[in-house]
Design a protein that fits this description.
Blueprint lengths: L2 H15 L3 H10 L13 H8 L1 H26 L3 H16 L12 H11 L1 H18 L2 H18 L4 H17 L1 H9 L8
Length: 198
């Protein structure tokens, strides 16, 4: 894959990942603009609260797919190096968090990161998902589960001895996810964060 082709591929990945799944689904299924209600976030948790369970679940699946499918296609058809795959993953998370379609104001990246991690290191995902499930089960805080799962992913990648470019990409994605949760972190510290109710 030559340099120009790779740059064009990254642009396509960015534009796919930038599609605001939650905003579109909430408007179609509930007629709501999720940016104006709840937490104002376009991710699955806020869509679930504002537009209902169906919209929330579909948003979750859509956001996962934005990270999973483009990277899976690259991996299966283009035989990328570990470095190229890592860069593609980093591009996808940036697209979701900073979408051109919404003036670069996007989601927090958790579901899209999950889709990306499934391609970068599927085994590491199992550990991170377990961290998420245990945290949410014990605390009922989706945000805390998301943060701890994101932080644990690079540790599992390291333990699994994945290639260095995959570790670097995973660290970048984890840091970005935590950064996007900075308001949640402040609310957790002040005891003002909302707990999840099924």
């Amino acid at each position: 894959m030559n340099q120009i082709s790779f740059l064009l591929l990254l642009l396509v990945i960015y534009l796919i990942a930038a599609i605001p799944t939650g905003l579109v689904l909430a408007r179609v299924l509930g007629g709501e603009d999720v940016r104006e209600k709840g937490s104002g976030n376009i991710g699955a948790t806020n869509v679930y609260r504002v537009a209902g369970k169906a919209a929330g679940v579909l948003t979750l699946l859509g956001d996962i797919s934005k990270g999973l499918l483009p990277l899976l296609a690259v991996q299966l058809w283009l035989e990328p190096t570990a470095t190229q795959l890592g860069i593609a993953g980093a591009t996808a998370i940036v697209g979701h968090c900073y979408p051109v379609y919404l003036c670069f104001k996007g989601g927090k990246g958790v579901a899209t990161a999950l889709g990306i991690f499934l391609v970068l290191s599927a085994k590491a995902v199992a550990g991170a998902v377990l961290v998420f499930i245990l945290t949410v089960a014990l605390t009922r805080y989706i945000s805390l589960g998301s943060i701890l799962a994101a932080l644990s992913a690079p540790l599992f990648v390291l333990l699994l001895a994945e290639p260095d470019p995959i570790l670097v990409a995973t660290c970048f994605i984890a840091v970005l996810v935590v950064w996007r949760h900075r308001a949640n972190i402040q609310r957790l510290l002040s005891g003002e964060e909302s707990r999840f109710k099924a």
